[in-house]
Amino acid sequence: MIYTMNYLSPLGNIKFASDGDSLIGLWFEGQKYHGDTIFKEMELKEDLEIFKKSKKWIDSYFNKENPSIDDIPLGPIGGEFRKDVWKILCEIPYGETISYGEIAKKIAKKRNLKSMSAQAVGGAVGHNPVSIIIPCHRVVGSNGSLTGYASGVEKKIWLLEHEGLDLNKFKK
């Protein structure tokens, strides 16, 4: 069974999802690849311990703190490639960015490949099921463009500004 909790953020409604032990989803209402499109049966159960931890984390984040991702047991569902990309996303420091191309180079190195497609990385980033906590909003185009956020570029811009980035150096 997949359990859910709703949360009202400064950017609108967010739905958390859990398998009972791990956080497997955090989606903005209406975003691409929302949990409602993935899981057919979800039960509202807001009193789970994982939801208490997740709510505390997200409250801290929206209060401009830098909560540790290590405090949340994450269990995003996806293939090996996507999980490798999401692991790299978890390593992006608060208030910093990385390009799709840089992630592709890291994946290629890990897999002992000559190169890796930045577009393939973009697909994995776009399917990140745990927004904000797995910080896919910190990924930018190689030319500094603020592209590709499943919840919309306006939310990506808000999150990056919230973390203190000067967006004048980025292409919108």
Automatic annotation (TrEMBL):
Q: Give its localization.
A: Cytoplasm
Q: What is its EC number?
A: 2.1.1.63
Q: Give every Methylguanine DNA methyltransferase ribonuclease-like domain span.
A: 6-74
Coiled-coil intervals: none
Q: Which UniProt keywords apply?
A: Cytoplasm, DNA damage, DNA repair, Methyltransferase, Transferase
Q: Which Gene Ontology molecular function entries are recorded, alphabetically?
A: methylated-DNA-[protein]-cysteine S-methyltransferase activity
Task: Tell me where in this chain the Methylated-DNA-[protein]-cysteine S-methyltransferase DNA binding domain is found.
Answer: 80-164
Q: Name one GO biological process term.
A: methylation
- One Pfam match, given by its short name, reads Methyltransf_1N
Enzymatic reactions: a 6-O-methyl-2'-deoxyguanosine in DNA + L-cysteinyl-[protein] = S-methyl-L-cysteinyl-[protein] + a 2'-deoxyguanosine in DNA; a 4-O-methyl-thymidine in DNA + L-cysteinyl-[protein] = a thymidine in DNA + S-methyl-L-cysteinyl-[protein]
Q: Which residues of this protein are catalytic?
A: 136
UniProt superkingdom = Bacteria
The yes or no answer to whether the keyword Ribonucleoprotein is present is no
Q: Which InterPro entries match?
A: MethylDNA_cys_MeTrfase_AS (IPR001497), MethylDNA_cys_MeTrfase_DNA-bd (IPR014048), MethylDNA_cys_MeTrfase_DNAb (IPR036217), MethylG_MeTrfase_N (IPR008332), MGMT (IPR023546), MGMT_N_sf (IPR036631), WH-like_DNA-bd_sf (IPR036388)
Whether Disulfide bond counts among this entry's keywords is no
Cross-referenced Gene3D superfamilies:
Methylated DNA-protein cysteine methyltransferase domain, Winged helix-like DNA-binding domain superfamily/Winged helix DNA-binding domain
Q: What does this protein do?
A: Involved in the cellular defense against the biological effects of O6-methylguanine (O6-MeG) and O4-methylthymine (O4-MeT) in DNA. Repairs the methylated nucleobase in DNA by stoichiometrically transferring the methyl group to a cysteine residue in the enzyme. This is a suicide reaction: the enzyme is irreversibly inactivated.
Q: What else is known?
A: This enzyme catalyzes only one turnover and therefore is not strictly catalytic. According to one definition, an enzyme is a biocatalyst that acts repeatedly and over many reaction cycles.
What's this protein's family per the entry?
Answer: Belongs to the MGMT family.
Q: What is this protein called?
A: Methylated-DNA--protein-cysteine methyltransferase
